[in-house]
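Progress note, project year one: complex with adenine.
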Amino acid sequence: MHFHIMTLFPEMVQNGLHTSVIGRAEEKGYISVHAVNIRDYTLDKHNKVDDYTYGGGAGMLMQAQPVYDCWKALQKGIEERKTQGNTMPHQTKVIYVTPQGEVFHQKKAVELSKEEDLIFLCGHYEGVDERVLEEIVTDCISIGDYVLTGGELAAMVMIDAIARLVPGVLNNGESAATESHSNGLLEYPQYSRPEIWHDKRVPEVLLSGHHANIEKWRQQQAIERTKQRRPELYQAYLEAQNS
Ligand code: ADE
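Model obtained:
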């Protein structure tokens, strides 16, 4: 899977995603992360990419031209690669990362992990000229109801969540299936050595070697934890069980 990020701060994205699990997945060729500097596409002789907003108001806006030309170049590269590989080119999803989008969740991560390419557009300043958004954006996504200084961190969060679902990225096929949110519940508590720490014992059932009982205990714990910490998720889980 290929991630393309349109940004004014390519080093931030590139550095942030080159370590740990995602970095290894890239080295092994399961994914690629390609951050492109929108500024490289400006036609302004002073390299400007932003300007004042019509109608007044605080702050600057990213202009349509550099964003559009950057997207065109990316789209062309993707189409050329697909033509060489005999894959039918189709319009690659362009995700505008914005607090005005639908809120990102695990289901969306699963859906997006099936795409071959994804383009992320990271806004800065007061946002991006609406006209270019109308022409290129297919999905507007937020990572939560708060405002960041730019879209880069939000794009990195989403890329991390999506990339780990791409087959091969996690070593252990089990972990993505059992972790929080994969089945509508938060994950059960887990314990490692030693058996007693600060006078706290590992729950007896986990030492029993009885797999069916362990599974049952974990399921109960997951339900209890979800009920306490995320009552709205628990309600949705109950409704899904009864439908
Ligand atoms: N850009 C600024 N804030 C954001 C948020 N909460 N989600 C996505 N992109 C953003």
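Residues 14 and 35 are 6 Å apart (CA to CA).
The mean pLDDT is 94.
No further modelling is planned for this target in the current period.
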